[in-house]
Amino acid sequence: MRNSSSTLESLPTMFIMVGFPGLEAEHIWISIPFCLMYIIIFLGNGTILHVIRTDTALHQPMYLFLAMLALTEVSVSASTLPTVLGVFLFGITEISFNACLLQMFSIHSFSIMESAVLLSMSVDRFVAIYNPLRYTAILTVPRIFGMAAGIGLKSIVLMAPLTILLRHPTFCGHNILSHSYCLHPNLIHLPCGDTTINNIYGLFIVTSTFGLDSLLIVVSYGFILHTVLSIATGEGRRKALSTCSSHVCAVFSYYVPMIGLSMVHRLGYHVSPLLHAMMANAYLFLPPVVNPIVYSIKTKEIRRGISWILSEKKARV
């Protein structure tokens, strides 16, 4: 009983969230671009989901994977929305320990799912270019839904122990976060006790998900380039590569900010707290803002679906 009570006493009841350090007086104005980004995220990704759901012609592997990507991005953004707008709009900087763990679990779980979906999309592009005649036979709808279920289960199983491990270190009153939401790289720096196991398991998650996914994406694009270069005509090569352009943009918008944020956290106190906040926001907000815009512009089937929805609404009016 003594050990359990001392563990509970060592846990903070509240964490203090930070928006942009040094710019607290400007938070109400900073909230405007955040509100605009949330509108773009939910409206853009929601439109893509609606177009794919309603247009049966888009019930194909490529668009089903795109729907999965849009769904994970909406979920990540929904996980951050309460605290981000709470901090910038209403000045609510406190979050309970359990709520912080839940938010951390949600953000990282959906981020792991998003990385796995990007890998699945690269495999989809490879199959479409390497063996187009058997494309739909290989990537059947049941197989795609099985992949989605596996991705979701893997993310939950990997993240569950991390939330449990964070309940054991001693925090010694350290409860000020670097962001307006809870991220594991930030939380793991707050305890004053031994966090070796937490760090090792956190590194295992990063390498077995983001690290492995990014490596396999590079490998799949190596195979794609090899296949494309074997196509005889230049026009055929151009068409084959054009089908990958949107996915390449999605990969870069996801992994570049993630690598930047990881480097900032590794440098720790040697960088400005403002840079911490900016890199974390780029990591969480850039992909869900950029991707629906890119896919809407570069994918004619999505453009056609959006045009059809808009024309139908005008006809009703």
From TrEMBL:
<dbReference type="GO" id="GO:0005886">
    <property type="term" value="C:plasma membrane"/>
</dbReference>
<feature type="transmembrane region" description="Helical">
    <location>
        <begin position="104"/>
        <end position="123"/>
    </location>
</feature>
<feature type="transmembrane region" description="Helical">
    <location>
        <begin position="144"/>
        <end position="166"/>
    </location>
</feature>
<keyword id="KW-0472">Membrane</keyword>
<feature type="transmembrane region" description="Helical">
    <location>
        <begin position="64"/>
        <end position="92"/>
    </location>
</feature>
<feature type="transmembrane region" description="Helical">
    <location>
        <begin position="274"/>
        <end position="294"/>
    </location>
</feature>
<feature type="transmembrane region" description="Helical">
    <location>
        <begin position="240"/>
        <end position="262"/>
    </location>
</feature>
<dbReference type="InterPro" id="IPR000276">
    <property type="entry name" value="GPCR_Rhodpsn"/>
</dbReference>
<keyword id="KW-0552">Olfaction</keyword>
<dbReference type="GO" id="GO:0004930">
    <property type="term" value="F:G protein-coupled receptor activity"/>
</dbReference>
<dbReference type="GO" id="GO:0004984">
    <property type="term" value="F:olfactory receptor activity"/>
</dbReference>
<feature type="transmembrane region" description="Helical">
    <location>
        <begin position="28"/>
        <end position="52"/>
    </location>
</feature>
<keyword id="KW-0675">Receptor</keyword>
<keyword id="KW-1133">Transmembrane helix</keyword>
<dbReference type="InterPro" id="IPR050402">
    <property type="entry name" value="OR51/52/56-like"/>
</dbReference>
<keyword id="KW-0297">G-protein coupled receptor</keyword>
<dbReference type="InterPro" id="IPR017452">
    <property type="entry name" value="GPCR_Rhodpsn_7TM"/>
</dbReference>
<dbReference type="Pfam" id="PF13853">
    <property type="entry name" value="7tm_4"/>
</dbReference>
<keyword id="KW-0812">Transmembrane</keyword>
<feature type="transmembrane region" description="Helical">
    <location>
        <begin position="200"/>
        <end position="228"/>
    </location>
</feature>
<keyword id="KW-0716">Sensory transduction</keyword>
<keyword id="KW-0807">Transducer</keyword>
<dbReference type="GO" id="GO:0071396">
    <property type="term" value="P:cellular response to lipid"/>
</dbReference>
<comment type="similarity">
    <text>Belongs to the G-protein coupled receptor 1 family.</text>
</comment>
<keyword id="KW-1003">Cell membrane</keyword>
<feature type="domain" description="G-protein coupled receptors family 1 profile">
    <location>
        <begin position="44"/>
        <end position="295"/>
    </location>
</feature>
<comment type="function">
    <text>Putative odorant or sperm cell receptor.</text>
</comment>
<protein>
    <recommendedName>
        <fullName>Olfactory receptor</fullName>
    </recommendedName>
</protein>
<dbReference type="InterPro" id="IPR000725">
    <property type="entry name" value="Olfact_rcpt"/>
</dbReference>
